[in-house]
Amino acid sequence: MVNAVVLINVERGKVNEVAETLADMRAISEVYSVGGRFDLVAIVRAKENEELADLVTKHMSAVPGITGTETMVAFRAYSRHDLDRMFSIGFENP
C-alpha cells in the first residue's frame, strides 16, 4: 500500500467542483479544502507506486481547474486512531 498526500492548486471559483471530481476517483480516500498556499489536499491510498503515478500524472492532471500539484509520498503511518480501534474492540463509547 502506498499512501500519499497531494497538495493541489485550483483556479478561482472551481474548488468545490474539483474537490467533488477528485473525491470520486478510486484511490482518493478524502479531499479537504484548506487555507494557505494550496486550495485542496487529497489523501491517496494506492495499491502500488504505478497506481499513484497514473492517478497524479494522468487522471488528476486531466481535471479541469487544477493548476498545479505537489505530491508527498508517505514512508510510514503513525496514527492514534488505529491503536484506539485495535484496543477498543468489544467496547462501546459512552
Count structural domains. 1
CATH topology: Alpha-Beta Plaits
Q: Can you identify the CATH class?
A: Alpha Beta
CATH level-4 homologous superfamily: Lrp/AsnC effector binding domain/regulation of amino acid metabolism (RAM) domain
Helical region count? 3
Q: Roughly how many Å apart are the termini? A: 34 Å
The number of distinct β-strands equals 4
Question: Going across the major beta sheet, what is the strand order?
Answer: 2-3-1-4
Any idea what the CATH architecture is?
2-Layer Sandwich
**Mind summarizing the main beta sheet?**
4 strands, antiparallel
Task: Look at the structure and give the mean pLDDT.
Answer: 90
Assign an overall shape.
globular
**What is the H/E order?**
EHEEHEH
- Structural Rg: 15 Å
Estimate the strand proportion.
25-35%
Structural class: alpha+beta
Which parts are unreliable, with pLDDT below 50 for 5 consecutive residues or more?
Answer: none
How much helical structure, as a percent, in the residues?
25-40%
